[in-house]
C-alpha cells in the first residue's frame, strides 16, 4: 500500500503561482512513477503532468506546458508541482497519483494506469 497526501492548494489571483506537494509513504518512493491530475466541477479527471521514477522523463498536458513543472525529491519521498502563470481555467481539485508498475523510464498520462491516489487539494484561480 502507498499513502499519498497532497498539500499546497489554495486561492490565488490569475498570474500567480502555487507549489503543490505530495508526500508518500508505505513503499519505496524511488520505485514509483508519479503523476498529477486535476478535475474541475462537471468535468472528467484530466492529466496534468507525470514523472518517471528515475526522474529522467516527464510529460505535460499541452494546456500547462511551459507554466507547470513536476519534480521529485527521493530523499523526502515527495513529488512537487510548481504552477506559474496560473489562469482561471486551472481551477480544479488536483490529485497526486502513484504507479507501482512502471519501469524506471516510464510514466503514464492515463489515470487508469495509476494504482494509488491522494485525497486531492483544491486550487482556485480568481480572475
Concise description?
By secondary structure, the protein is mostly beta strands. The chain is built from no helices and eleven strands.
Strand content: over 45%
Residue-averaged pLDDT: 95
Number of strands: 11
Helix fraction, binned, reads under 10%
* Main pleated-sheet profile: 7 strands, mixed
Would you identify the regions where 5 or more consecutive residues have pLDDT less than 50? none
Q: What is the straight-line distance between the termini?
A: 40 Å
Output the keywords.
127 residues, mainly beta, four-stranded antiparallel beta sheet
Please give a structural write-up.
There is one protein chain. 0% of the residues lie in helices and 48% in strands. β4 and β5 form a beta hairpin. The chain has strands spanning 3-7, 10-13, 18-25, 33-39, 46-51, 58-60, 68-73, 78-83, 92-99, 116-117, 121-126. By secondary structure, it is mostly beta strands. It is built from no helices and eleven strands.
Amino acid at each position: 500500500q502507498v499513502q499519498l497526501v497532497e498539500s499546497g492548494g489554495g486561492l490565488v489571483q490569475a498570474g500567480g503561482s502555487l507549489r503543490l506537494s505530495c508526500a508518500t509513504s508505505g513503499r519505496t518512493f524511488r520505485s514509483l512513477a508519479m503523476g498529477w491530475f486535476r478535475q474541475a466541477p462537471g468535468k472528467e479527471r484530466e492529466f496534468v503532468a507525470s514523472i518517471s521514477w528515475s526522474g529522467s522523463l516527464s510529460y505535460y498536458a499541452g494546456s500547462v506546458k511551459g507554466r507547470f513543472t513536476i519534480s521529485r525529491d527521493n530523499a523526502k519521498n515527495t513529488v512537487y508541482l510548481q504552477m506559474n502563470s496560473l489562469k482561471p481555467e486551472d481551477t480544479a481539485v488536483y490529485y497526486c497519483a502513484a504507479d507501482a508498475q512502471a519501469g524506471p523510464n516510464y510514466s503514464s498520462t492515463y489515470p487508469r494506469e495509476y494504482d494509488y491516489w491522494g485525497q486531492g487539494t483544491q486550487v482556485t484561480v480568481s480572475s
